[in-house]
Amino acid sequence: MEQGRAYRVADGRMVAGVARGLALHLGVSVLVVRALFVAATVLGSGAGLLAYLAFWALLPIDPNGSERATPDAARGRWIAWTLVAGLLGVLALSALGLASLNEYMVPVAVAVAGITLVWSQADDEQRVAWRRDAAGVAREAAGEAAAHGRWRTTVGALSVVLAIIGFAIARVGATTMLQGLATTVLLLIGLLLVAYPWLHGLWDARARERAAHIRADERAEMAARIHDSVMQTLTLVQKHADDPQRVQQLARAEEHALRDWLYGEAANAASLVGAMQHAANDVESKHGVNIEFVSVVDAAVDSRIEGLLAAAQEAMVNAARHSGATVVQVFTEAGATGVDVFVRDRGQGFDPSSVPLDRAGLRESIERRMQRCGGSATIRTAIGEGTEVRLHLPQVSP
Amino acid sequence: MRSASELRVLVIDDHAMVRSGVRAELQGHVREVLEADGVTAGVATVKEQRPDVVLLDIHMPDGGGVAVLRARQESLGGTSFLALSVSDAEVDVIDAVRAGARGYVTKHISGPELLDAVERVANGDAVFSPRLAGFVLDAFVGAAAEEDEELDRLSPREQEVMRLLARGYTYREIASELFLSIKTIETHASAVLRKLQLSNRRELSRWADKRHLG
After folding, report:
1. Is A295 in the B-facing interface, judged by CB distances under 8 Å?
2. Which of A9, A282, B41, B125 has the CA that lies 20 to 30 A from B119?
3. Do residues B149 and B80 lie in contact, with contact meaning Cβ atoms separated by under 8 Å?
4. ipTM above 0.90, yes or no
Protein backbone atom coordinates (compact mmCIF):
# COMPACT_ATOMS: atom_id res chain seq x y z
CA MET A 1 0.00 0.00 0.00
CA GLU A 2 1.47 3.33 -0.94
CA GLN A 3 2.21 5.83 1.79
CA GLY A 4 -0.08 8.79 2.46
CA ARG A 5 -3.18 7.34 0.88
CA ALA A 6 -5.93 5.79 2.96
CA TYR A 7 -7.89 2.82 1.68
CA ARG A 8 -10.69 0.71 2.92
CA VAL A 9 -9.59 -2.87 3.44
CA ALA A 10 -11.77 -5.81 2.60
CA ASP A 11 -9.62 -8.15 4.67
CA GLY A 12 -11.04 -8.57 8.17
CA ARG A 13 -13.62 -5.83 7.83
CA MET A 14 -16.92 -5.78 9.71
CA VAL A 15 -19.00 -3.46 7.57
CA ALA A 16 -17.13 -1.67 4.82
CA GLY A 17 -13.54 -1.77 6.06
CA VAL A 18 -13.47 1.93 6.96
CA ALA A 19 -12.35 1.48 10.57
CA ARG A 20 -9.69 -1.05 9.64
CA GLY A 21 -8.48 1.08 6.76
CA LEU A 22 -8.20 4.18 8.94
CA ALA A 23 -6.52 2.19 11.70
CA LEU A 24 -3.90 0.94 9.25
CA HIS A 25 -3.44 4.42 7.84
CA LEU A 26 -3.07 6.07 11.26
CA GLY A 27 -1.13 3.23 12.80
CA VAL A 28 -3.50 2.70 15.72
CA SER A 29 -5.55 -0.29 16.79
CA VAL A 30 -8.73 -0.93 14.87
CA LEU A 31 -10.57 -1.20 18.19
CA VAL A 32 -9.72 2.40 19.01
CA VAL A 33 -11.11 3.63 15.70
CA ARG A 34 -14.28 1.58 16.11
CA ALA A 35 -14.78 2.83 19.66
CA LEU A 36 -14.38 6.42 18.46
CA PHE A 37 -17.03 5.91 15.78
CA VAL A 38 -19.46 4.38 18.27
CA ALA A 39 -18.81 7.10 20.84
CA ALA A 40 -19.30 9.85 18.24
CA THR A 41 -22.55 8.22 17.16
CA VAL A 42 -23.99 7.88 20.66
CA LEU A 43 -22.77 11.15 22.10
CA GLY A 44 -22.84 13.29 19.00
CA SER A 45 -26.43 12.36 18.04
CA GLY A 46 -25.37 10.33 14.99
CA ALA A 47 -22.28 12.27 13.95
CA GLY A 48 -20.12 9.12 14.08
CA LEU A 49 -22.50 7.30 11.78
CA LEU A 50 -22.47 10.18 9.30
CA ALA A 51 -18.68 10.32 9.43
CA TYR A 52 -18.52 6.57 8.80
CA LEU A 53 -20.80 6.87 5.76
CA ALA A 54 -18.74 9.77 4.46
CA PHE A 55 -15.51 7.79 4.75
CA TRP A 56 -17.19 4.83 3.05
CA ALA A 57 -18.17 6.97 0.11
CA LEU A 58 -14.82 8.76 -0.16
CA LEU A 59 -12.21 6.07 0.51
CA PRO A 60 -11.51 3.64 -2.31
CA ILE A 61 -11.14 -0.08 -1.60
CA ASP A 62 -7.52 -1.18 -1.41
CA PRO A 63 -7.03 -2.75 -4.85
CA ASN A 64 -4.00 -4.71 -3.69
CA GLY A 65 -5.81 -6.16 -0.72
CA SER A 66 -5.77 -9.87 -0.25
CA GLU A 67 -8.75 -11.89 -1.33
CA ARG A 68 -9.41 -13.17 2.15
CA ALA A 69 -12.34 -10.79 2.52
CA THR A 70 -14.79 -11.73 5.22
CA PRO A 71 -17.35 -13.93 3.45
CA ASP A 72 -20.32 -11.97 2.16
CA ALA A 73 -22.95 -14.08 3.88
CA ALA A 74 -21.31 -13.81 7.29
CA ARG A 75 -20.81 -10.09 6.87
CA GLY A 76 -24.39 -9.57 5.71
CA ARG A 77 -25.68 -11.33 8.81
CA TRP A 78 -23.43 -9.26 10.99
CA ILE A 79 -24.67 -6.00 9.45
CA ALA A 80 -28.31 -7.07 9.73
CA TRP A 81 -28.02 -8.04 13.40
CA THR A 82 -26.17 -4.85 14.29
CA LEU A 83 -28.86 -2.75 12.66
CA VAL A 84 -31.68 -4.67 14.38
CA ALA A 85 -29.89 -4.44 17.72
CA GLY A 86 -29.35 -0.71 17.21
CA LEU A 87 -33.02 -0.12 16.39
CA LEU A 88 -34.17 -2.18 19.36
CA GLY A 89 -31.70 -0.34 21.59
CA VAL A 90 -33.03 3.04 20.51
CA LEU A 91 -36.64 1.86 21.00
CA ALA A 92 -35.80 0.46 24.42
CA LEU A 93 -34.04 3.63 25.50
CA SER A 94 -37.01 5.76 24.44
CA ALA A 95 -39.49 3.40 26.10
CA LEU A 96 -37.54 3.75 29.31
CA GLY A 97 -37.65 7.49 28.87
CA LEU A 98 -33.86 7.69 28.77
CA ALA A 99 -33.80 9.12 25.30
CA SER A 100 -36.49 10.94 23.42
CA LEU A 101 -37.47 9.08 20.30
CA ASN A 102 -38.70 11.56 17.77
CA GLU A 103 -40.58 10.60 14.61
CA TYR A 104 -37.51 11.06 12.39
CA MET A 105 -35.29 8.51 14.03
CA VAL A 106 -36.88 5.35 12.67
CA PRO A 107 -36.91 6.51 9.03
CA VAL A 108 -33.29 7.65 9.34
CA ALA A 109 -32.27 4.27 10.77
CA VAL A 110 -34.07 2.41 8.00
CA ALA A 111 -32.48 4.65 5.37
CA VAL A 112 -29.03 4.04 6.83
CA ALA A 113 -29.66 0.28 6.74
CA GLY A 114 -30.76 0.47 3.10
CA ILE A 115 -27.78 2.56 2.06
CA THR A 116 -25.45 0.15 3.86
CA LEU A 117 -26.90 -2.75 1.93
CA VAL A 118 -26.67 -1.06 -1.47
CA TRP A 119 -23.18 0.32 -0.94
CA SER A 120 -21.75 -2.89 0.40
CA GLN A 121 -23.12 -4.61 -2.69
CA ALA A 122 -21.45 -2.05 -4.95
CA ASP A 123 -18.17 -2.70 -3.09
CA ASP A 124 -18.44 -6.43 -3.68
CA GLU A 125 -19.13 -6.00 -7.36
CA GLN A 126 -16.07 -3.84 -7.74
CA ARG A 127 -13.97 -6.37 -5.90
CA VAL A 128 -15.31 -9.22 -8.02
CA ALA A 129 -14.59 -7.22 -11.18
CA TRP A 130 -10.98 -6.71 -10.10
CA ARG A 131 -10.56 -10.31 -9.21
CA ARG A 132 -12.03 -11.37 -12.54
CA ASP A 133 -9.62 -9.13 -14.39
CA ALA A 134 -6.74 -10.52 -12.42
CA ALA A 135 -7.52 -14.20 -12.46
CA GLY A 136 -10.22 -14.72 -15.04
CA VAL A 137 -12.78 -16.09 -12.59
CA ALA A 138 -15.45 -18.17 -14.29
CA ARG A 139 -18.18 -15.98 -15.72
CA GLU A 140 -21.02 -18.24 -14.56
CA ALA A 141 -19.99 -17.78 -10.94
CA ALA A 142 -19.92 -14.04 -11.45
CA GLY A 143 -23.42 -14.21 -12.95
CA GLU A 144 -24.70 -16.07 -9.94
CA ALA A 145 -23.18 -13.51 -7.63
CA ALA A 146 -24.79 -10.75 -9.72
CA ALA A 147 -28.25 -12.30 -9.29
CA HIS A 148 -27.71 -12.44 -5.55
CA GLY A 149 -26.44 -8.84 -5.68
CA ARG A 150 -29.54 -7.57 -7.52
CA TRP A 151 -31.67 -8.98 -4.73
CA ARG A 152 -29.63 -7.17 -2.09
CA THR A 153 -29.63 -3.93 -4.07
CA THR A 154 -33.41 -4.07 -4.51
CA VAL A 155 -34.07 -4.63 -0.81
CA GLY A 156 -31.67 -1.82 0.08
CA ALA A 157 -33.21 0.63 -2.39
CA LEU A 158 -36.74 -0.25 -1.21
CA SER A 159 -35.87 0.44 2.40
CA VAL A 160 -34.37 3.81 1.49
CA VAL A 161 -37.52 4.75 -0.45
CA LEU A 162 -39.74 3.63 2.42
CA ALA A 163 -37.63 5.60 4.85
CA ILE A 164 -37.98 8.75 2.77
CA ILE A 165 -41.75 8.27 2.54
CA GLY A 166 -41.90 7.69 6.30
CA PHE A 167 -39.85 10.79 6.88
CA ALA A 168 -42.13 12.82 4.63
CA ILE A 169 -45.28 11.55 6.33
CA ALA A 170 -43.86 12.46 9.71
CA ARG A 171 -42.93 15.88 8.47
CA VAL A 172 -45.84 17.05 6.30
CA GLY A 173 -48.68 14.58 6.84
CA ALA A 174 -50.02 11.82 4.66
CA THR A 175 -52.10 13.85 2.19
CA THR A 176 -49.44 16.32 1.23
CA MET A 177 -46.97 13.48 1.08
CA LEU A 178 -49.15 11.52 -1.35
CA GLN A 179 -49.53 14.56 -3.58
CA GLY A 180 -45.82 15.10 -3.47
CA LEU A 181 -45.21 11.41 -4.20
CA ALA A 182 -47.51 11.55 -7.23
CA THR A 183 -45.72 14.64 -8.54
CA THR A 184 -42.36 12.96 -8.04
CA VAL A 185 -43.43 9.79 -9.83
CA LEU A 186 -44.73 11.82 -12.77
CA LEU A 187 -41.52 13.80 -12.86
CA LEU A 188 -39.47 10.61 -12.82
CA ILE A 189 -41.48 9.11 -15.67
CA GLY A 190 -41.01 12.29 -17.68
CA LEU A 191 -37.27 12.29 -17.03
CA LEU A 192 -36.98 8.62 -17.96
CA LEU A 193 -38.81 9.24 -21.23
CA VAL A 194 -36.56 12.15 -22.08
CA ALA A 195 -33.39 10.32 -21.11
CA TYR A 196 -34.43 6.97 -22.61
CA PRO A 197 -32.44 7.12 -25.87
CA TRP A 198 -29.36 8.19 -23.99
CA LEU A 199 -29.76 5.50 -21.31
CA HIS A 200 -30.40 2.90 -23.95
CA GLY A 201 -27.31 3.94 -25.86
CA LEU A 202 -25.28 3.79 -22.67
CA TRP A 203 -26.53 0.30 -21.93
CA ASP A 204 -25.83 -0.84 -25.47
CA ALA A 205 -22.36 0.61 -25.46
CA ARG A 206 -21.63 -1.20 -22.22
CA ALA A 207 -22.82 -4.52 -23.59
CA ARG A 208 -20.78 -4.01 -26.75
CA GLU A 209 -17.74 -3.10 -24.73
CA ARG A 210 -18.09 -6.24 -22.68
CA ALA A 211 -18.46 -8.40 -25.78
CA ALA A 212 -15.41 -6.77 -27.32
CA HIS A 213 -13.52 -7.42 -24.12
CA ILE A 214 -14.39 -11.12 -24.19
CA ARG A 215 -13.39 -11.36 -27.84
CA ALA A 216 -10.11 -9.63 -27.13
CA ASP A 217 -9.45 -12.09 -24.31
CA GLU A 218 -10.06 -15.03 -26.58
CA ARG A 219 -7.89 -13.55 -29.28
CA ALA A 220 -5.12 -12.98 -26.75
CA GLU A 221 -5.31 -16.59 -25.61
CA MET A 222 -5.21 -17.78 -29.20
CA ALA A 223 -2.27 -15.50 -29.98
CA ALA A 224 -0.39 -16.73 -26.92
CA ARG A 225 -1.01 -20.31 -27.95
CA ILE A 226 0.11 -19.72 -31.51
CA HIS A 227 3.16 -17.87 -30.34
CA ASP A 228 4.21 -20.38 -27.71
CA SER A 229 3.75 -23.47 -29.72
CA VAL A 230 3.09 -22.99 -33.42
CA MET A 231 5.70 -20.28 -34.01
CA GLN A 232 8.24 -22.29 -32.08
CA THR A 233 7.55 -25.34 -34.21
CA LEU A 234 7.74 -23.32 -37.42
CA THR A 235 11.12 -21.97 -36.38
CA LEU A 236 12.34 -25.49 -35.66
CA VAL A 237 10.96 -26.70 -38.98
CA GLN A 238 12.94 -24.02 -40.82
CA LYS A 239 16.05 -24.94 -38.91
CA HIS A 240 15.69 -28.62 -39.80
CA ALA A 241 14.54 -28.07 -43.37
CA ASP A 242 17.15 -30.54 -44.67
CA ASP A 243 15.97 -33.34 -42.38
CA PRO A 244 12.58 -34.56 -43.60
CA GLN A 245 12.20 -37.05 -40.76
CA ARG A 246 12.69 -34.40 -38.10
CA VAL A 247 10.35 -31.99 -39.89
CA GLN A 248 7.68 -34.64 -40.03
CA GLN A 249 8.10 -35.38 -36.35
CA LEU A 250 7.81 -31.73 -35.44
CA ALA A 251 4.75 -31.23 -37.59
CA ARG A 252 3.09 -34.29 -36.12
CA ALA A 253 3.80 -33.35 -32.53
CA GLU A 254 2.42 -29.88 -33.16
CA GLU A 255 -0.65 -31.34 -34.83
CA HIS A 256 -1.35 -33.52 -31.79
CA ALA A 257 -0.92 -30.60 -29.46
CA LEU A 258 -3.21 -28.34 -31.49
CA ARG A 259 -5.81 -31.03 -31.85
CA ASP A 260 -5.84 -31.66 -28.13
CA TRP A 261 -6.26 -27.99 -27.53
CA LEU A 262 -8.94 -27.36 -30.18
CA TYR A 263 -11.06 -30.45 -29.77
CA GLY A 264 -10.19 -31.37 -26.20
CA GLU A 265 -9.04 -34.80 -27.25
CA ALA A 266 -6.55 -34.97 -24.43
CA ALA A 267 -5.97 -38.63 -23.91
CA ASN A 268 -7.46 -40.04 -20.78
CA ALA A 269 -4.92 -42.62 -19.68
CA ALA A 270 -7.46 -44.42 -17.50
CA SER A 271 -9.47 -45.58 -20.52
CA LEU A 272 -8.52 -48.12 -23.15
CA VAL A 273 -9.11 -45.70 -26.02
CA GLY A 274 -7.26 -42.86 -24.30
CA ALA A 275 -4.28 -45.05 -23.50
CA MET A 276 -4.19 -46.50 -27.02
CA GLN A 277 -4.34 -43.01 -28.52
CA HIS A 278 -1.51 -42.00 -26.26
CA ALA A 279 0.57 -45.00 -27.28
CA ALA A 280 -0.17 -44.34 -30.95
CA ASN A 281 0.92 -40.70 -30.65
CA ASP A 282 4.07 -41.84 -28.92
CA VAL A 283 4.98 -44.32 -31.65
CA GLU A 284 4.14 -41.74 -34.32
CA SER A 285 6.51 -39.16 -32.95
CA LYS A 286 9.30 -41.61 -32.13
CA HIS A 287 9.27 -43.63 -35.33
CA GLY A 288 7.99 -41.22 -37.95
CA VAL A 289 5.00 -43.18 -39.21
CA ASN A 290 1.36 -42.18 -39.49
CA ILE A 291 -0.92 -44.17 -37.26
CA GLU A 292 -4.56 -44.19 -38.22
CA PHE A 293 -6.33 -44.98 -34.99
CA VAL A 294 -9.97 -46.01 -34.90
CA SER A 295 -11.84 -47.13 -31.82
CA VAL A 296 -15.26 -48.53 -31.07
CA VAL A 297 -16.58 -48.59 -27.49
CA ASP A 298 -14.22 -47.68 -24.69
CA ALA A 299 -13.32 -49.71 -21.61
CA ALA A 300 -11.67 -48.97 -18.30
CA VAL A 301 -8.06 -49.96 -17.92
CA ASP A 302 -7.38 -52.80 -15.50
CA SER A 303 -4.29 -54.93 -14.99
CA ARG A 304 -5.20 -57.30 -17.83
CA ILE A 305 -5.77 -54.45 -20.25
CA GLU A 306 -2.43 -53.00 -19.23
CA GLY A 307 -0.82 -56.15 -20.59
CA LEU A 308 -2.82 -55.77 -23.79
CA LEU A 309 -1.72 -52.14 -24.08
CA ALA A 310 1.94 -53.08 -23.74
CA ALA A 311 1.57 -55.74 -26.42
CA ALA A 312 -0.28 -53.31 -28.71
CA GLN A 313 2.46 -50.73 -28.32
CA GLU A 314 5.03 -53.39 -29.14
CA ALA A 315 3.07 -54.33 -32.26
CA MET A 316 2.88 -50.70 -33.37
CA VAL A 317 6.59 -50.16 -32.83
CA ASN A 318 7.25 -53.37 -34.70
CA ALA A 319 5.17 -52.25 -37.67
CA ALA A 320 6.77 -48.82 -37.64
CA ARG A 321 10.32 -50.17 -37.53
CA HIS A 322 10.26 -53.20 -39.77
CA SER A 323 7.39 -53.05 -42.24
CA GLY A 324 8.61 -50.12 -44.31
CA ALA A 325 5.04 -48.84 -44.52
CA THR A 326 4.32 -45.16 -43.85
CA VAL A 327 0.85 -45.79 -42.47
CA VAL A 328 -0.10 -48.17 -39.70
CA GLN A 329 -3.75 -48.86 -39.04
CA VAL A 330 -4.86 -49.53 -35.50
CA PHE A 331 -8.37 -50.58 -34.57
CA THR A 332 -9.66 -51.17 -31.05
CA GLU A 333 -13.02 -52.57 -30.07
CA ALA A 334 -14.32 -53.44 -26.64
CA GLY A 335 -17.28 -55.68 -27.34
CA ALA A 336 -19.36 -58.39 -25.74
CA THR A 337 -16.77 -61.06 -26.42
CA GLY A 338 -13.83 -59.10 -25.06
CA VAL A 339 -11.35 -56.54 -26.24
CA ASP A 340 -9.80 -56.73 -29.69
CA VAL A 341 -6.89 -54.73 -31.03
CA PHE A 342 -5.77 -54.92 -34.65
CA VAL A 343 -2.48 -53.45 -35.79
CA ARG A 344 -2.08 -53.55 -39.52
CA ASP A 345 0.46 -52.33 -42.02
CA ARG A 346 0.74 -52.67 -45.77
CA GLY A 347 4.49 -53.09 -45.62
CA GLN A 348 6.78 -55.82 -46.84
CA GLY A 349 5.50 -58.52 -44.52
CA PHE A 350 7.57 -61.58 -43.72
CA ASP A 351 7.51 -65.33 -44.02
CA PRO A 352 6.14 -66.64 -40.74
CA SER A 353 7.93 -69.97 -41.18
CA SER A 354 11.37 -68.40 -41.36
CA VAL A 355 11.13 -65.51 -38.96
CA PRO A 356 14.22 -63.35 -38.92
CA LEU A 357 15.89 -63.31 -35.55
CA ASP A 358 15.29 -59.66 -34.77
CA ARG A 359 11.57 -60.08 -35.31
CA ALA A 360 11.30 -63.31 -33.39
CA GLY A 361 12.07 -61.53 -30.14
CA LEU A 362 9.42 -58.92 -30.74
CA ARG A 363 6.92 -61.52 -31.84
CA GLU A 364 7.50 -63.54 -28.74
CA SER A 365 7.27 -60.54 -26.53
CA ILE A 366 3.86 -59.79 -28.00
CA GLU A 367 2.61 -63.34 -27.78
CA ARG A 368 4.02 -63.99 -24.32
CA ARG A 369 2.59 -60.75 -23.00
CA MET A 370 -0.85 -61.68 -24.27
CA GLN A 371 -0.66 -65.15 -22.77
CA ARG A 372 0.37 -63.71 -19.43
CA CYS A 373 -2.72 -61.53 -19.27
CA GLY A 374 -4.98 -64.35 -20.41
CA GLY A 375 -5.33 -63.33 -24.04
CA SER A 376 -3.94 -64.37 -27.35
CA ALA A 377 -2.06 -62.87 -30.28
CA THR A 378 -2.50 -63.91 -33.90
CA ILE A 379 -0.16 -62.71 -36.60
CA ARG A 380 -1.15 -62.80 -40.24
CA THR A 381 1.56 -62.00 -42.70
CA ALA A 382 3.16 -63.03 -45.96
CA ILE A 383 6.00 -61.57 -47.96
CA GLY A 384 4.72 -58.51 -49.82
CA GLU A 385 1.32 -58.71 -48.16
CA GLY A 386 1.87 -56.59 -45.09
CA THR A 387 1.25 -57.73 -41.55
CA GLU A 388 -1.74 -57.76 -39.28
CA VAL A 389 -1.47 -58.48 -35.58
CA ARG A 390 -4.65 -59.32 -33.74
CA LEU A 391 -4.63 -59.11 -29.99
CA HIS A 392 -7.61 -60.61 -28.24
CA LEU A 393 -8.50 -60.44 -24.59
CA PRO A 394 -11.62 -62.48 -23.78
CA GLN A 395 -14.25 -61.08 -21.49
CA VAL A 396 -13.86 -62.46 -17.98
CA SER A 397 -17.12 -63.47 -16.39
CA PRO A 398 -17.55 -61.36 -13.29
CA MET B 1 -19.11 -47.76 -64.70
CA ARG B 2 -17.42 -44.45 -65.37
CA SER B 3 -13.68 -44.30 -65.13
CA ALA B 4 -11.86 -41.38 -63.57
CA SER B 5 -10.68 -39.99 -66.90
CA GLU B 6 -14.25 -39.08 -67.90
CA LEU B 7 -14.99 -37.18 -64.70
CA ARG B 8 -15.25 -33.47 -64.04
CA VAL B 9 -14.31 -32.73 -60.44
CA LEU B 10 -15.02 -29.54 -58.49
CA VAL B 11 -12.94 -28.71 -55.42
CA ILE B 12 -14.66 -26.41 -52.93
CA ASP B 13 -12.22 -25.23 -50.28
CA ASP B 14 -11.46 -21.81 -48.85
CA HIS B 15 -7.72 -22.52 -48.78
CA ALA B 16 -5.97 -21.97 -52.08
CA MET B 17 -3.16 -24.25 -50.96
CA VAL B 18 -5.50 -27.19 -50.49
CA ARG B 19 -7.20 -26.55 -53.84
CA SER B 20 -3.93 -26.48 -55.73
CA GLY B 21 -2.76 -29.57 -53.82
CA VAL B 22 -5.84 -31.54 -54.82
CA ARG B 23 -5.54 -30.22 -58.36
CA ALA B 24 -1.97 -31.47 -58.53
CA GLU B 25 -3.08 -34.93 -57.36
CA LEU B 26 -5.97 -35.23 -59.80
CA GLN B 27 -4.78 -33.32 -62.86
CA GLY B 28 -4.17 -35.59 -65.80
CA HIS B 29 -6.17 -38.41 -64.24
CA VAL B 30 -9.60 -36.79 -64.55
CA ARG B 31 -11.13 -34.85 -67.42
CA GLU B 32 -11.27 -31.50 -65.65
CA VAL B 33 -10.59 -30.00 -62.24
CA LEU B 34 -12.69 -26.99 -61.26
CA GLU B 35 -12.21 -24.84 -58.18
CA ALA B 36 -14.41 -22.70 -55.95
CA ASP B 37 -13.23 -20.79 -52.91
CA GLY B 38 -16.25 -20.80 -50.66
CA VAL B 39 -19.84 -21.76 -49.98
CA THR B 40 -21.49 -19.19 -52.26
CA ALA B 41 -19.09 -19.67 -55.16
CA GLY B 42 -19.32 -23.42 -54.64
CA VAL B 43 -23.11 -23.55 -54.85
CA ALA B 44 -23.06 -21.34 -57.97
CA THR B 45 -20.41 -23.46 -59.69
CA VAL B 46 -22.26 -26.68 -58.92
CA LYS B 47 -25.38 -25.21 -60.56
CA GLU B 48 -23.61 -23.86 -63.63
CA GLN B 49 -21.04 -26.53 -64.31
CA ARG B 50 -22.79 -29.68 -63.10
CA PRO B 51 -19.56 -31.48 -62.14
CA ASP B 52 -19.67 -35.23 -61.62
CA VAL B 53 -17.97 -35.15 -58.25
CA VAL B 54 -17.58 -32.36 -55.71
CA LEU B 55 -14.76 -32.56 -53.18
CA LEU B 56 -16.15 -30.54 -50.34
CA ASP B 57 -14.24 -29.00 -47.45
CA ILE B 58 -16.24 -29.37 -44.25
CA HIS B 59 -14.77 -26.36 -42.47
CA MET B 60 -15.42 -23.12 -44.33
CA PRO B 61 -16.87 -19.77 -43.30
CA ASP B 62 -20.63 -19.28 -43.90
CA GLY B 63 -21.73 -22.71 -42.78
CA GLY B 64 -19.09 -24.97 -44.32
CA GLY B 65 -19.63 -27.99 -46.52
CA VAL B 66 -22.95 -28.79 -44.92
CA ALA B 67 -24.31 -25.44 -46.18
CA VAL B 68 -23.36 -26.39 -49.73
CA LEU B 69 -25.04 -29.77 -49.35
CA ARG B 70 -28.20 -28.15 -48.00
CA ALA B 71 -28.31 -25.54 -50.79
CA ARG B 72 -27.96 -28.20 -53.49
CA GLN B 73 -31.12 -28.73 -55.46
CA GLU B 74 -32.81 -32.08 -55.90
CA SER B 75 -32.40 -31.59 -59.63
CA LEU B 76 -28.62 -31.91 -59.32
CA GLY B 77 -28.88 -35.67 -59.12
CA GLY B 78 -25.89 -36.10 -61.41
CA THR B 79 -23.46 -34.65 -58.90
CA SER B 80 -21.99 -36.69 -56.06
CA PHE B 81 -20.39 -35.14 -53.01
CA LEU B 82 -17.35 -36.38 -51.15
CA ALA B 83 -16.44 -34.63 -47.91
CA LEU B 84 -12.82 -33.67 -47.40
CA SER B 85 -11.53 -32.51 -44.04
CA VAL B 86 -8.50 -32.27 -41.80
CA SER B 87 -10.71 -32.65 -38.80
CA ASP B 88 -11.40 -36.13 -37.54
CA ALA B 89 -14.08 -34.84 -35.22
CA GLU B 90 -16.91 -37.33 -35.73
CA VAL B 91 -19.71 -34.83 -35.50
CA ASP B 92 -18.45 -32.89 -38.51
CA VAL B 93 -18.15 -36.01 -40.59
CA ILE B 94 -21.56 -37.30 -39.58
CA ASP B 95 -23.22 -33.97 -40.30
CA ALA B 96 -21.77 -33.95 -43.81
CA VAL B 97 -22.75 -37.55 -44.53
CA ARG B 98 -26.24 -37.06 -43.16
CA ALA B 99 -26.60 -33.96 -45.32
CA GLY B 100 -25.93 -36.09 -48.38
CA ALA B 101 -22.20 -36.62 -48.86
CA ARG B 102 -21.38 -40.07 -50.27
CA GLY B 103 -18.41 -40.45 -47.99
CA TYR B 104 -15.57 -38.80 -46.24
CA VAL B 105 -11.80 -38.71 -46.68
CA THR B 106 -9.15 -36.77 -44.80
CA LYS B 107 -6.85 -34.31 -46.51
CA HIS B 108 -3.96 -36.65 -45.67
CA ILE B 109 -5.22 -39.16 -48.23
CA SER B 110 -2.70 -40.18 -50.91
CA GLY B 111 -3.21 -39.27 -54.56
CA PRO B 112 -4.13 -42.75 -55.84
CA GLU B 113 -6.49 -43.31 -52.92
CA LEU B 114 -8.21 -39.98 -53.58
CA LEU B 115 -8.59 -40.85 -57.24
CA ASP B 116 -10.05 -44.20 -56.27
CA ALA B 117 -12.51 -42.50 -53.89
CA VAL B 118 -13.56 -39.99 -56.57
CA GLU B 119 -14.24 -42.77 -59.04
CA ARG B 120 -16.18 -44.78 -56.48
CA VAL B 121 -18.37 -41.82 -55.50
CA ALA B 122 -19.03 -40.94 -59.15
CA ASN B 123 -20.39 -44.45 -59.62
CA GLY B 124 -22.82 -44.05 -56.76
CA ASP B 125 -20.85 -46.06 -54.22
CA ALA B 126 -19.97 -45.06 -50.71
CA VAL B 127 -16.52 -44.17 -49.43
CA PHE B 128 -15.81 -45.12 -45.85
CA SER B 129 -12.62 -44.03 -44.18
CA PRO B 130 -11.65 -46.33 -41.30
CA ARG B 131 -12.75 -43.65 -38.89
CA LEU B 132 -16.17 -43.28 -40.47
CA ALA B 133 -16.62 -47.05 -40.35
CA GLY B 134 -15.58 -46.96 -36.69
CA PHE B 135 -18.16 -44.32 -35.99
CA VAL B 136 -20.89 -46.35 -37.69
CA LEU B 137 -20.03 -49.33 -35.51
CA ASP B 138 -20.02 -47.14 -32.45
CA ALA B 139 -23.41 -45.66 -33.23
CA PHE B 140 -25.19 -48.75 -34.52
CA VAL B 141 -23.58 -51.63 -32.68
CA GLY B 142 -21.85 -50.24 -29.64
CA ALA B 143 -24.86 -49.12 -27.66
CA ALA B 144 -27.05 -52.11 -26.93
CA ALA B 145 -30.40 -50.56 -27.72
CA GLU B 146 -33.25 -52.61 -29.12
CA GLU B 147 -34.40 -50.81 -32.22
CA ASP B 148 -37.29 -52.09 -34.28
CA GLU B 149 -36.71 -50.15 -37.44
CA GLU B 150 -34.82 -51.94 -40.16
CA LEU B 151 -32.95 -48.69 -40.71
CA ASP B 152 -31.66 -48.71 -37.18
CA ARG B 153 -29.84 -52.01 -37.37
CA LEU B 154 -26.88 -53.32 -39.32
CA SER B 155 -27.04 -56.86 -40.62
CA PRO B 156 -24.26 -59.19 -39.40
CA ARG B 157 -22.71 -58.98 -42.86
CA GLU B 158 -22.79 -55.18 -42.84
CA GLN B 159 -21.17 -55.18 -39.42
CA GLU B 160 -18.47 -57.47 -40.71
CA VAL B 161 -17.80 -55.17 -43.66
CA MET B 162 -17.67 -52.11 -41.40
CA ARG B 163 -15.30 -53.84 -38.99
CA LEU B 164 -12.88 -54.68 -41.80
CA LEU B 165 -13.12 -51.14 -43.16
CA ALA B 166 -12.32 -49.82 -39.70
CA ARG B 167 -9.27 -52.10 -39.62
CA GLY B 168 -8.06 -50.41 -42.79
CA TYR B 169 -9.05 -52.99 -45.40
CA THR B 170 -9.89 -51.88 -48.93
CA TYR B 171 -13.07 -53.13 -50.63
CA ARG B 172 -10.94 -55.50 -52.66
CA GLU B 173 -9.26 -56.92 -49.56
CA ILE B 174 -12.61 -57.30 -47.82
CA ALA B 175 -14.01 -59.13 -50.83
CA SER B 176 -11.22 -61.68 -50.76
CA GLU B 177 -11.37 -61.97 -46.97
CA LEU B 178 -15.11 -62.74 -47.02
CA PHE B 179 -15.09 -64.68 -50.31
CA LEU B 180 -17.53 -62.25 -51.88
CA SER B 181 -17.40 -60.10 -55.01
CA ILE B 182 -16.32 -56.47 -54.79
CA LYS B 183 -19.76 -55.52 -56.11
CA THR B 184 -21.38 -57.20 -53.11
CA ILE B 185 -19.13 -55.35 -50.69
CA GLU B 186 -20.00 -52.08 -52.43
CA THR B 187 -23.69 -52.88 -52.09
CA HIS B 188 -23.29 -53.50 -48.37
CA ALA B 189 -21.36 -50.26 -47.94
CA SER B 190 -24.01 -48.27 -49.83
CA ALA B 191 -26.73 -49.83 -47.70
CA VAL B 192 -24.89 -48.78 -44.54
CA LEU B 193 -24.46 -45.26 -45.90
CA ARG B 194 -28.18 -45.06 -46.56
CA LYS B 195 -28.94 -46.18 -43.02
CA LEU B 196 -26.50 -43.62 -41.69
CA GLN B 197 -28.34 -40.92 -43.65
CA LEU B 198 -31.88 -41.96 -42.88
CA SER B 199 -31.80 -43.63 -39.50
CA ASN B 200 -33.21 -41.81 -36.51
CA ARG B 201 -31.10 -43.71 -34.06
CA ARG B 202 -30.64 -41.95 -30.81
CA GLU B 203 -26.85 -42.17 -31.04
CA LEU B 204 -26.88 -40.18 -34.27
CA SER B 205 -28.98 -37.36 -32.91
CA ARG B 206 -26.88 -37.46 -29.77
CA TRP B 207 -23.81 -36.64 -31.83
CA ALA B 208 -25.68 -33.84 -33.52
CA ASP B 209 -26.84 -32.47 -30.17
CA LYS B 210 -23.32 -32.49 -28.85
CA ARG B 211 -22.27 -30.34 -31.73
CA HIS B 212 -24.93 -27.73 -31.12
CA LEU B 213 -24.13 -27.60 -27.45
CA GLY B 214 -20.41 -27.28 -28.01
Report:
1. yes
2. B41
3. no
4. no
